[in-house]
Automatic annotation (TrEMBL):
The gene is treP. Keywords: Cell membrane, Kinase, Membrane, Phosphotransferase system, Sugar transport, Transferase, Transmembrane, Transmembrane helix, Transport. The active site is at 27 (phosphocysteine intermediate). It is an enzyme of class 2 (transferase). It is found in: Cell membrane. InterPro entries: Glu_permease_IIB, PTrfase_EIIB_Cys, PTS_EIIC, PTS_EIIC_1, PTS_IIB_1, PTS_IIBC_treh, PTS_Sugar-Specific_Components. GO terms for molecular function: kinase activity; protein-N(PI)-phosphohistidine-sugar phosphotransferase activity; protein-phosphocysteine-trehalose phosphotransferase system transporter activity; trehalose transmembrane transporter activity. PANTHER family: PHOSPHOTRANSFERASE SYSTEM TRANSPORT PROTEIN, PTS SYSTEM TREHALOSE-SPECIFIC EIIBC COMPONENT. Its EC number is 2.7.1.201. GO terms for cellular component: plasma membrane. Its main location: membrane. The chain crosses the membrane at residues 106-129, 159-180, 187-207, 227-246, 258-282, 302-322, 401-420, 440-463. Residues 5-87 form the PTS EIIB type-1 domain. This is PTS system trehalose-specific EIIBC component.
Length: 483
């Protein structure tokens, strides 16, 4: 008998049986359920299962954290439950019936940016590595960079920009593809649309401000500026939405016999024209306003207050899914200002959550079963993935989560107060220092130390003071019992 058979039967019973499951799928660490009646799920007994690291509800889905063995467990579960395998997209669509308007908007935004994350992470690592070898004077008594001394590393530095440029400067291609994919439009049309926004024929977005003359298309009765939208987020999203809208509507009215020819042409050509005459300039203006407001807020005399609030609430935002909105803001800041002061705070929040779990490993050092959750969760958190730590440990006890929020808040104030900027996003946790602009790395390192020390000290203090354990259901228990 498989070792997962017993836990799978128990989980099936506690989620309300097969008849209560509308859709079930899994991701890297979690089982994702869309339940017909979420109230039938016995959360307390599910949390008590040895294989379960935690539970939470997000984006209309009841999610059960299993860990790295989720794939094997999932196969056993669906065999016992008698439910069919399904895709994540089908699960998301089914989950929307349990979501309000705001949750749906956030889910759509997340669906656009989530497929782009692997590329953004790679881009962030590349820019970080280029920082180290090209911008920091590490050699000859701090007078020269590595690329100034070594021809090999100079070549590597130049070569890596090929990838970095493809990821960040040509980001609109990925965004328009992701929008088309999300909306059910033809994905290759989304890619073509994105290329028309960053074509070499256009004046590069980064050269617009200093250009003596902007080229244009002359239609006789009208002139359209030939401006590129490299690294621009909002113009790409708007263009992708218009393309999808036109294509999906045309599919309904154009006869099938000619749809393959007519629909792509009538969807793509007008969208490209609209993108360069209306959506591009409008999106650029909106993006500029957003980035200016955020940057001004963070660099104003009240920047410390903004940083304190953001640092304190970012972890709760992750629980609600609202944190996906920061991706668009970060990318817009990067395109407008050449960096972002928002991302460093996110990396610090990751570190703070991991540090709180590290303290809990000591508090519950005699609990061998919990170590199976807490040790991997700490490592995961320090590498930028906080969910196992938050749902498996910190929210389970309550006070470590609060300690991490306080540590994140103090570290964020230090970061923003010293104007720390990141070149890119995507690299979280301890490796996040690689994305920081070289002149701010020392200050960010101090903020990292704070994000490590404060949560550890506060968690140990709260545990010693017997603050109490707060479960996900809100019941208080004596923390000593957990030890």
């Amino acid at each position: 008998m498989s070792k997962y058979q017993g836990p799978a039967r128990d989980l099936l019973k506690y989620v309300g049986g097969s008849e209560n499951i509308s859709v079930v799928t899994h991701c890297v660490t979690r089982m994702r359920f869309v339940l017909k009646d979420p109230k039938k799920a016995d959360v307390e007994n599910i949390d008590a299962l040895p294989l379960v690291k935690g539970t939470f509800t997000q984006a209309g889905q009841f999610q059960v954290i299993i860990g790295n063995e989720v794939s094997s467990f999932y196969n056993e579960f669906i065999a016992i439950a008698g439910v069919g395998d399904t895709s994540k997209e089908e699960a998301k669509e089914a989950a929307k019936q349990n979501m309000n308007v705001l949750q749906r908007m956030i889910a759509h935004l997340a669906d656009i940016f989530t497929p782009l994350i692997p590329a953004i992470v790679v881009g962030g690592l590349i820019l970080g590595f280029r920082n180290i070898i090209g911008d920091i004077k590490l050699l000859e008594d701090g007078t020269k960079t590595i690329i100034e001394v070594s021809q090999f590393w100079k070549g590597v530095h130049s070569f890596l920009w090929l990838i970095g440029e493809a990821i960040f400067h040509f980001l609109p291609v990925g965004i328009t593809w992701a929008v088309a994919r999300k909306m059910g439009a033809t994905q290759i049309l989304g890619i073509v649309l994105g290329i028309t926004l960053v074509s070499p024929q256009l004046l590069n977005a980064y050269g617009v401000a200093g250009a003596k003359e902007i080229p244009f298309w002359d239609f006789g009765f009208a002139k359209v500026q030939m401006i590129g939208y490299q690294a621009q987020v909002i113009p790409a999203i708007l263009a992708g939405l218009v393309l999808s809208f036109l294509e999906l509507r045309l599919r309904k009215i154009v006869p099938n016999s000619v749809s393959m020819i007519v629909v792509p042409f009538l969807a793509l050509v007008p969208t490209v024209l609209i993108a360069h005459t209306i959506l591009g300039p409008l999106g650029w203006k909106i993006g500029s306003v957003v980035s200016t407001v955020v940057y001004s807020g963070l660099t104003s005399s009240f920047g410390w207050l903004f940083a304190a609030v953001f640092g304190f609430v970012y972890a709760p935002l992750v629980i609600t899914g609202l944190h996906h909105m920061t991706n668009a803001i970060d990318l817009q800041l990067m395109s407008q200002l050449g960096g972002t002061n928002l991302w460093p705070m996110i990396a610090l929040s990751n570190i703070a959550q991991g540090s709180a779990v590290l303290a809990m490993i000591y508090v519950n050092r005699k609990n061998e079963e919990e170590k199976q959750v807490s040790i991997p969760a700490t490592i995961s958190c320090y590498l930028g993935v906080t969910e196992p730590a938050m749902f498996g440990i910190n929210l389970k006890y309550g006070y470590p989560f609060l300690a991490a929020m306080i540590g994140s808040m103090i570290a964020a104030v230090i970061s923003v107060g010293n104007h720390v900027m990141a070149n890119s996003i995507g690299v979280g946790g301890l490796p996040g220092i690689l994305s920081i602009q070289p002149k701010y790395m020392g200050t960010f390192a101090i903020a990292m130390v704070v994000a490590i020390v404060v949560p550890i000290v506060l968690t140990l203090a709260f545990a010693k003071a017997n603050v109490g354990k707060i479960s996900l259901k809100g019941k208080k228990e004596n923390s000593a019992k957990a030890a």
